[in-house]
Amino acid sequence: MAAFSAGAYDHAFDIDGGGAGSGMAAFSAGAYDHAFDIDGGGAGSVETGTASAGLEISVVSPLVFSSASGSISWAPSVAVGAADVSARLAGSLKISAAEDAARVATLTLIPASAADLEGYEGQTVTIDVTLFRPGQTASFRLFTGSVERSEFALAERLVTLSCRDGWQERPAACASAAEVEALLGGLATVSGKLLPWSNAKPDPAAYFSGLLETIPGATAIDSGGVWQVVPWTIGAPAATFSAAEVFDGSVDIITAARADVPAAVRATLAVRGHRLHSAEVDVDWTAVDYSRYIIDGLPTLPRATVLGALNGIDGWEVRGDPVIVAPTPGSYGPIQGAYYVVSAEHAPSICQSFTATLYRRWYQEIEIVHAITIDLGGASSRDDSINAAVSSDFDASAWESAARATAVSEIYAANDPHPPTGTPTGYEGLPEPWPPTNGAVDHLGNISAPELQAAVSQVVARAMRRAAAGQRRRSVRFARPLDPRWEVGAVLAIDAGGVAATGQVSEIEHELDIDSGALASTFTLAVPAGNGAVTGYTATAGTPANTVTHALTAPDLGNWVGASYDTLPDPDEDAVQGFLCNVDPLSDNYDDEAPAYVTQFRIVMPDIAAPLRDPLTVESPITATVTIASGNLEIAF
Amino acid sequence: MALSFFFHTDAALTTPVVARLPFVQAVADPVPADRVLYFGSPRSGRICQAASDPGVDPVTIAIADANSGSGSPTGDVRLALTSGGLDTAVGGDPLTLPETIAGGVAGAVAVHVRVLDSTHASGVNRDLTLVTNTLREVNA
């Protein structure tokens, strides 16, 4: 650029920038010192006075930044603490700012005394510059922060101050989750499950860092010390600079590294919960004809044996009460001159037949992986990934083993003053949730649907930011005469030297050379190859299909008579179910060489297949859209 | 010992306003420039009230013009307690805060400031200052 060579600049040390208003009584040393004197003054002291804050209204003509021929002069104004050190500046003064980073400044000055060297650290620093062009004056603040470190060069008698703003301190000073979230301007995607805030052990800095990874934008503190949240949105440029307005040879194009733009970003949220199953099986049994009691001397089946058998099946419970039918008292026969007699006293203790429903509840550990792959089309063959997991705290073991509470009063035989309401289901007292009969339900315990949605959204938000940040590595950098009008996030354009680009300011560096008078601003524009005007996302968690149905085979409960000539020599043991007994040794059918059974009522319930018991992983696609604000970059040779 | 109640640039009261607050306005067709200041004290357990009648008279913030007739007129500055209030605030009017302002971050009062230049004259105007009425600071 010819019109604005470094030599065209003049400089001065006019602190007040043209002489307007030299008084800054509001910022006396006393006012400043006491503002930081947290504990000073003693408890209970009564203080009176006023507080004030001065305003500086710079009415700027764009002519100040004109690249037309002419001259411009400038004057820095630097305050360290309450001291104006503008007249002691030497060397160069550099200020740089970037997204999600502290604004830093370095300046060199001639200390007034050795005592000054001890007092720089921690002092508040403001750096202003006033630009003069014939008939025009403009004043801008370039930096607000504090001295981080001082370095004194004895030979030159110069001290270099390294300063930064409070970008790290602001989040750390937050006392609640809401304050941290407010710092992100409502752009953060909050998930209490993935990134919880602890009131007991608050860690605002970590909470801020976590949320920062979800916002479609960036943060920075501007030159005036004001916290800013910058959405990654690239609209119409606020200014377009031609070749005459940028320094010759200052335009650089930086492409994103392959590592920054992977082929895809895969975001997954693993939700660990339980699939709760419920299955029912109806069983029934009927006694042999009464003639067998006479001919073979078979025993009757005691009611207590049936109840014991039904209630003793491992993992299975009886739904409601089994229906046990007792024989009708009376004499049956004769057969071969003998009778089978059932007395009225014994009949209730004998089971002639029964029907019952057995049920089982069991759980299966399930991991539902909500996933989405965001194609970036990067040159790298690598897929980037964002992974997170959340687990249910549901006590599935207790749920599975909980016994059904009786629906019948244990106190009253009749006229229960507190009878059960509604139609008994046989499942009374079982803890929730209740899976559908012969089905299953996926239960996530303490993870509610909104919480799941929030967690999915946060994972997608992180992927969105990762993708957008990678794309924003493609950038255009250029330098021009000091231009403090633009902050991080401003949308600018350049059309110079065969490069036409529109992008969002991601980095700024101002350099003011006290010795030579040169001053320049270097801007880095992010020009992502995106797919929209704004950066954002939508995400909806899918619900994995659960089509589990159980159709367990009911055991065939029969009557198995041993020690008989009719006894099978080697039956399938799994089929030997029901009432197992033997003929009387005095019976004509008694065979002492035939297998004899242990008298019992045997029930073997069907197994639960391994795929319905073993830990299960199910993938559920996330319905999502991700947009990345697109810049523009055209290169012509 | 002076007041610990002061203007800050952040709600956490970590950055007191120690230099003039800059506002940039275009000469032609300026648009309003808004900023938020936080008036409060980092010292929990302290309160401030109007010295004229503590607890009865409100704390107020006025716009003082050190050089009336030149620079920016007070009417170029609006004050409000909310962002939306700036639209209806009258330029140059003082802002009324509560009668008692508690120290600590939770007690800080947001003061919204809007500047809209009416001079349309290139220059840097440093004649305006936000200033409270005389305050009395004591333990809560």
Protein model, in words:
The complex is a heterodimer of chains A (637) and B (140). Chain A is mainly beta and 637 residues long. Chain A has two domains: 6-37 and 53-263 and 465-538, Baseplate protein-like domain - beta roll fold (Phage tail proteins - horseshoe like beta roll fold, Roll); 274-363 and 399-443 and 548-612, no CATH class. Chain A has nine helices and 35 strands. In chain A, helix 4 (177-183) crosses helix 5 (204-212). The two termini of chain A are 19 Å apart. Mean pLDDT of chain A is 88; it is low at 1-43. Chain B has 140 residues and is mainly beta. Chain B has one domain. Chain B has no helices and twelve strands. Chain B has strands at 6-8, 21-26, 33-40, 46-50, 60-65, 77-80, 95-96, 100-102, 109-115, 123-125, 128-132, 135-139. Chain B starts with 5 loop residues before the first strand and ends with a strand. The chains are: A mainly beta (637), B mainly beta (140). Chains A and B meet through helix 1, strand 2, strand 3, strand 8 and strand 9 of A and strand 2, strand 3, strand 10, strand 11 and strand 12 of B. Strand 3 of chain A pairs antiparallel with strand 11 (128-132) of chain B, so a sheet runs across the interface.
